Amino acid sequence: MSVKELVERYCRTSKLPHIWCPGCGNGIIMGAVMRALDKADIDQDKTVIVSGIGCSSRAPGYMNFDTLHTTHGRALAYATGVKMANPDLNVVVLTGDGDCSAIGGNHLIHAARRNINLTVVVFNNSIYGMTGGQYSPLTPTHSYATTAPYGSIDRNFDLCKLVQAAGGTYVARGTTYHTRQLVDQIVAGLGHNGFSFIEVITQCPMYFGRKNKFPSAVDMLKWQQEHAVPVKAAAKMTSEQLAGKFLIGELYHEEAPEYTAVYEKEVIAKARGEVK
Amino acid sequence: MPVPTERKAQLLSGNEACVQGAIAAGVRFFAGYPITPSTEIAEGLAVELPKIGGKFIQMEDEIASMGAVIGASLAGLKSMTATSGPGFSLKQENIGFAALTEIPCVIVNVQRYGPSTGLPTSPAQGDIMQARWGTHGDHPAIALMPASVREAFDLTVQAVNLSEELRTPVILLMDEVVGHMRERVELPATDEITVVNRVKPTEDPEHFLPYKPGPNLVPPMPAFGDGYRFHVTGLVHNETGFPSGKGKDGNILVRRLLAKIEQRQPSIAQAELYQADDADIVIVAAGSVARSARAAVKEARAQGLKLGLVRPITAWPFPAEAINSVATTAKAMIVAEMNLGQMIIEVERAACGRVPVIGLNRIDAELITPQDIIARAQEVTKNVR
Amino acid sequence: MNSEVAHIDINEKWCKGCGICIAFCPAKVLVAREDGKAAVANIEACTRCGLCELRCPDYAISVGGKQHASTN
User: Fold this and answer.
1) Domains and CATH numbers, chain B
2) Which of A101, A256, B119, B121 might form a disulfide with B113, Cβ 3.0–4.6 angstroms?
């Protein structure tokens, strides 16, 4: 499918060009999500895209599906309601690092714990972009932000580890540089019957970049290229070699009972006296 | 579908009647978080909903419960949550989202003593103003205040119906006493209950404008998955549903949200009048306090003191007409409420200075008794004569 | 392999001139115009790998000709 066909099919073309800054990775991720939905051959009329608040969360407005732009941090709570009410819908959640790990952190761990079939794509640009560049729980320690003028002293989350520990059953990390792999990770997440979580390392040249000595989006993608280590390659590397790097690829995958299916099979069946 | 039920007498609490009302009205999704004194509603629906293929989920917190309710409603199910003071505070942002995006849903608030954790879980009526102005910005509000177990059932049905008809969040504002007291009630048979369902669009998706209002100012509402591919956002939007960033669209939208309730106000706003026509002193009381007030009216009349009662059934829209109807005949009004004066503000507004309006307030976690009311009435009688 | 020359379309209205496609084109097909937006300079070198499409944040560049690996 050509870019033109992709955009015409999966975008609300009258809303484009989008509001994101030049070089912002959000458009790359939204493109990867559309390509993945296409590759996974989903039913466009049975797919709901849910987001919270922030730069990333503007994505659903451009996407030609049923779309729900909720309140800050709460995308997963709304998405849980959508999926519970109608498990036949594919529910994709697009969120940002601040949205899903700070104000929405509680919903993230509990949605993962339930293993409800949602596909979550986190646009991790390490900053609050919409409000002008404040540090988030994913801002690397010692990075600068408007609210961390002397460098952030907070330790940042490893969100993938968090989600895995909470019970998420498909966990992957990608980048906006490794776009082809990113599409495949999202395809795998869409196909996984359970809570799928794809963290995407992306660039905010406007706020994170400027404060942290990245003159352009290109420099930020080069940083991704140099610091991302595929899981398989990492297995053969020493901890010294891995210092300062981050892993990409499928980080965790297990098959486990999916929440809405269990509700049908156990709760409804027991309540109706069909099983004991 | 639930099995049709006949009339039958039962011993129920207000919270249990609320559960029955929700099922009867067609609620098929509940999300909640444990909080006294509303928990029996969650417990009851956890039992009943799956029996009829409905869904119950206990969420991680109050905010998530409100979010899940909105999501489920968008996916096509009639949806409800129940909470109490602290939880009601936490839900406010998402109640505002439901108001702006016009998502039908019901929020039960079994009021308890506040602010903050307060006195768990003693009775109070301190959330009357919060039910009106809890979320930020101008927004519509409907809040219903049952005074009996049977009314907890009826008003739950009505809350669901209004939310569906008007595409707006509706609050069932119970108090702890009504929620927990048990009464022998006869619930109506299934065929005696009117159930209202949201109007779905009839045009094809190509020509559909998700926020184009119908004649009653309410836009028809498809469910996610119906093929309309519509956008829902808490940003100010125009008829297309997409954010416009324009003040003029905010002006149109927010005014319509209020107008759709206002034009139905005469039939939504309700009050019960009890011996109010010839009363020298009219007591205004709602919820459990209205029960004391009714007893006070009987007792006082037996003593020769002509009391009457106006019982607002809707906190919002406030039944100003009912107050008006007695403002010229009564010599005084006493507004009895378990707070330091919330409903009295609306009563004064409706009375327009035509009659003295006096408060009777308790916040010692005890019910206002008939004796309290009679004593205040006797005091007032001396002063107004 | 095919000998057909690729065709690259750049939507000037959507291109925001971020330079990503230019910097990471393995065959150095693209250059920046004066206004920073991308332009094709060396179409013969294009291998139709499609990376420019995948990484364009603005859906402003598309590679035509035969189907390439990126989307099938």
Assistant:
1) 8-192 (3.40.50.970), 272-384 (3.40.50.920)
2) B119
Q: Is residue C32 part of a domain?
A: yes
CATH number at residue C47: 3.30.70.20
- Per-residue b/e over B249-258, b at no fewer than 16 CB within 10 Å? bbebbbebbe
Chain A residues closer than 8 Å to C54 by CB: 28, 31-32, 35, 179-180, 183
C1 assigned to some structural domain: no
> Which residue in B has a C-alpha nearest to residue A64's C-alpha?
B229
B neighbour chains, 3+ CB pairs within 8 Å: A
Confidence bin at A147 (pLDDT 50/70/90): very high
Prediction ipTM score: 0.98
Alpha carbon distance A108, A163 (integer Å): 7
Rounded to whole angstroms, the Cα distance separating B73 from B62 reads 17
φ, ψ (nearest 5 deg) of residue C28? 55, 50
Cα–Cα distance between B97 and A71 in angstroms, integer? 7
Domains held by chain C: number? 1
In order of their start, the domains of chain A are 3-271 (3.40.50.970)
The alpha carbon of residue A256 is apart from the nearest alpha carbon of chain B, in Å, by: 19
Under the banding of pLDDT at 50, 70 and 90, the label for residue C68 is: very low
Q: For residue C26, what are the domain limits?
A: 7-62
pLDDT in tens, A48-60: 999 999 999 999 9
Please list the alpha-helical segments (H only) found in B52-148.
62-74, 85-101, 128-133
- Chain C residues with CB inside 8 Å of A16's CB? 14, 59
